[in-house]
Amino acid sequence: MAVPAAFFAVFFAYPVAAIVRRGLEADGVWQVGRIAEVLLRPDVRHVLWFTTWQALASTALTLLVALPGAYVFARLDFPGRQVLRAVVTVPFVLPTVVVGTAFLALVGRGGLLDELWGVRLDTTVWAILLAHVFFNYAVVVRTVGGLWAGLDPRQEEAARMLGASPAAAWRTVTLPALAPAVAAAALMVFLFTFTSFGVVQILGGPTFSTLEVEIYRQTAQIFDLSTAAVLTIIQFLAVGAILAVHAWTVRRRESALRLVDPALTARRPRGAGQWALLVGVLVTVALLLVLPLAVLVQRSLTAPGLGYYRALTDPDGGVFLVAPINAVGTSLSYAAAATAIAVVIGGLAAAALTRLPRSRSGGRVSFAERLVRGFDALLMLPLGISAVTVGFGFLIALDRPPLDLRQSWILVPLAQALVGVPFVVRTMLPVLRAVDGRLREAAAVLGASPWRVWREVDLPMVRRALLVAAGFAFAVSLGEFGATVFIARPDNPTLPVAVARLIGRPGDLNYGQAMALSTILMVVCVVTLLILERLLPRSGADPAGGAPVGRGGEF
Amino acid sequence: MLLGLRAATVRFDGRAVLDAVDLDVAEHEIVCVLGPSGSGKSTLLRAIAGLQPLDSGRVLLDGRDQAAVPVHRRGVGLMFQDHQLFPQRDVAGNVAFGLRMHGMAKNERAARVGELLDLVGLPGAERRAVASLSGGEQQRVALARALAPRPRLLMLDEPLGQLDRSLRERLVVELRELFGRLGTTVLAVTHDQGEAFALADRVVVMRDGRIAQAGTPLEVWQRPADAFVARFLGFENVVEATVDGEAAITPWGKVPVPGGSPQGTRTLLVRPAGVRLVPPAEGLRCTVAARTFQGTHVTLHLQPRDAPRLEAACPLRTAPEVGAETGVEFDPAETVVLD
Question: What ipTM does this complex have?
């Protein structure tokens, strides 16, 4: 418990405190009024307004597009369903930079639509909205669909037997059961789009700027650190509020629903309506999810003889001090280090949370339990706290003694680990909690010391969850952009930073190289995901690790 | 004494789940703790194993206080209610677990596992997956696993609880034989009196964390300590009575009792076999309210006017129909005045 707590104190709480000081303290005097002052500036209000309404619009659009998908994947059985489910998940683990470049290749200048019909969307908000839908489709399909697949169809049948029409049965039985999951998914999407950075940075151009992008601009381009700090505080508060609401809906979702094996609820499509829905969803997936990535790959190949890829190996490209391809090695080694840190910290935190006593008495919530819940929420905080906050905090907090890490290579992995830890905890915690305490007792009675008990009972059961957690942390670290862009050294960029840098430069060669590098990044992430999908159990066949991992991976 | 409990007390949220329990178990003895659910039986076993710390009192093994001894060093075995086999290990892996923990060499282990599986009637099952075992087989593997490290005391928590009736009756005989042959000291808990009587040398009846009665199965069966024990053993004909000489005044009228019974206001037990049917004109007049077929006999529920129901056992041939009128007399040999 002490190790993860100290980690968060030093690398999260301390930088956040430094941000607060930077923003609100001038000449040793606290000026809380600065928040109001900054809030009233027209440019800031414009940014806030845009951040909020684009997040709302993205959420609504995502629900509209993805809810039919959730139904189709949950309730219809068709060939290739498993493969398609995996395909649909791919965008979520893709780095935002890849998503940005892919949509640029589709709807941007010289993009596919531009070539075909002369349509360009990269100067409009539609590019951002579409990219957000692309990114969050999986969140809705997995959260809502996961529950939908487990709902017992006999509940609806019971309502039908009592005289309800199909529509009435759906409205009175299924919808109320799904509502909390839909709300939780919507909040998750809102949170992700509210804090969207990479996508807006690449597709937004000079016109559109979210709070995150504005914080980065104030820091890196205008060098107004105190305004950036105040904006970060505002963002911090907004995210805290969203997470609080999310925690509340999740707790409501836990209300006793009797779930059944998803394999039993899926049926072959019947009737014109279901076929139309299936075809509609397949077309949506093809156009919205597959096409952008296909175009990205295609664009990276347009130069003869893999020219863009070969250009990546050229050290005299002019953009960086080293050949862009070196970013692959840099990214992989950073991600490996970040994964190691995240797994150790997250694993320890999860183990500590499991060992804390849970209240025996039914109604009353004990202090310990409240503490556990509080710590649960705290660990989730960096998930929403936005990578930019972390990066900015590292930038201004860890640059002087006693913690001067500016010159150290470990800075980037540390920031990436911070972003990855919540994923590790989320994956490990349900599995560790699912280990029956009496198995540990059985081992102890047979003569196993406490350490032996952990090795012989807990470890074999969580080994797979540990691998899954490591995979998540690795994918997250690999694609991490918001924090890294603040602190990565210019001479040694990571893949996402290099892609963003290339895309920001004029010229076909830079553009093509960005597409090529982005493709490489995508391939690495997809391979990681495929390995994860292999590790994740397909059904409840494994009593120990099965269901919890599946649920833990869904939000 | 191998095991001794001295005023062992455990409280959950201020409520005593074990309330100053004293208990001794001698070497090679089989003791069954019998009680309804919630009477503290499982807590008793957990306290002895060290899984549940005592709030006061002591656990002694071979006369030594175990307060400072952690679970894994107490050298006692516990077979859990739902077995708790390790799902990721096969049968041999489960049985060998305790042997590995005690540092036994690999080849020795294999031999011992084979020997134990023979003993519990599952020869050659080493490589089978735990999930593929039936309930009875799981029970046997759990037993083999608990026996493997040769614990000085083997504790069984509802050992046969989840099995169906015929299997249970067969296994209880096997267990009794096995423990007798191995000379194992056993402390088992169960809520099933049939199981307890079949298995135990000595029975301990628990109620609300206290010991209500202890004795051989025969003693407990013949002379239940109080109304609670009598009712828990399945006797229904239990009433308040005033004993005077060799007769007791009860709501059922005058009931003859054995000579030398305690006198005064007492609790009276009449076993079903002691309720004899006579023609309606003689004795206590009752209506047959229900009859249930028990295989060897019929149990009748008789409703006297203005008195509690009586349970009577009678042969199938002579059993009256529901609704018939009958008279009842009592046999002093089957009547017990409780202390």
Answer: 0.77
